[in-house]
Amino acid sequence: MNDASPSSTPIGALRPRRQRLIACPALEPDIAPEMELLVELELNGLLSFSTKTPVSTRPQDSGKPFTKIGAGSCGAVFAQKGTPYAIKMSRAEDHSALWNDYVCHARIAQLFDRWEFDEVRIPACYFFVPAGEPRFFERHKALLEAAEGVCSTPTSALVTERILPLPERARELLIEKYCAEHIRDEARADPANRDCLVRIYLGSTHGKSGQRFFSLRNFKLHLNHMMELQLDVRALARGVGIALAIMHWAAEMDARDVEFVLGSSSQTVSLAKDPSALSSLTPKTYTGPSSGRMEDLFRKVETTKLWVIDFNQVRKITMDADGVAQAVDAARRNDPYIPKPLQTSADEREVWKAFALSYVEAADVILNIVNGEENDLLELPRLFIQGLIDVQREKQQAEADLEAGRR
User: Which of 10, 180, 249, 358 could cross-link 241 (Cys pair, CB 3.0–4.6 Å)?
Assistant: First the structure.
């Protein structure tokens, strides 16, 4: 399959318009905790400004210690405070999984950019470091020290963009709402909880509150939690649907074991006056920062975003029924990130509908541009959706048979 031209990429046209929410330094004192958390987590909405510290462009201190900010079956992830990089170190003696992570991550990131799709972000993929590479590891001995006891060294590394954790206020609100009262102080004091990314479980309604064992590192936000918080679950489902369509039909990969998480994204913006506002000003009015300091013209802006991560198990698929079957099996293993069909509640049905329609629409756009409007591949995305329905129907039938056998 040939790549589509970047000049003909209308994936962005599928994105719904949403009003932005601007976060103030302090919210109204009488706002309900659920609404405050909604504001903190609202996708593409929250913009929280940093303090009035000028934005520095100087290189970060390479002598800072590395800390572990996450771990999985493939590797452990380390970072230095204040730096924009995350380094995933292979935990296995065979480093092929991490190399596969690198190759698939880089390719999928390229296609997200080519199709101008940013409803779901993907960390920038920088470079791979073979085990024992002296040009890298001799300069980053603190990284090897941090990895001791976690990874078998020498080991390989993958350097990517670091996803910033959710803001401190959002973390505090999650603790207040979902952590058992008697361990809240312990949760607040745990430094690991500063590395807070939230997994979105659109296919699960089994989330609970008052948990006795609580961690904000990869916190699981189930669909019933999202509904309680009044998050735009349909927007989340649309994002997941379009992301999977790009991975399946543009990258030709099965998206096996990828994860969807909420995290922060940071960028530096100028606070210069909008040119459209100049006509209403008195001529020769001062329009610079109120402090008079030129460096105060710039601020760091953090926005809550939906991200897709972890590509070490992703595999190529063929553009036929066998490829669809492989993608369906991979989606089954990605449970519960993907909405489920055949559910009874109106909310679950709406989330499934948003996911399925966005997936098929995005797939049609991709396949029509790549292959022309007259092609036999357009049935494949529909077979994928039908495959998810069949898997869920079989699961429900098995559960019904098991329940009948107990009677």
Answer: 358
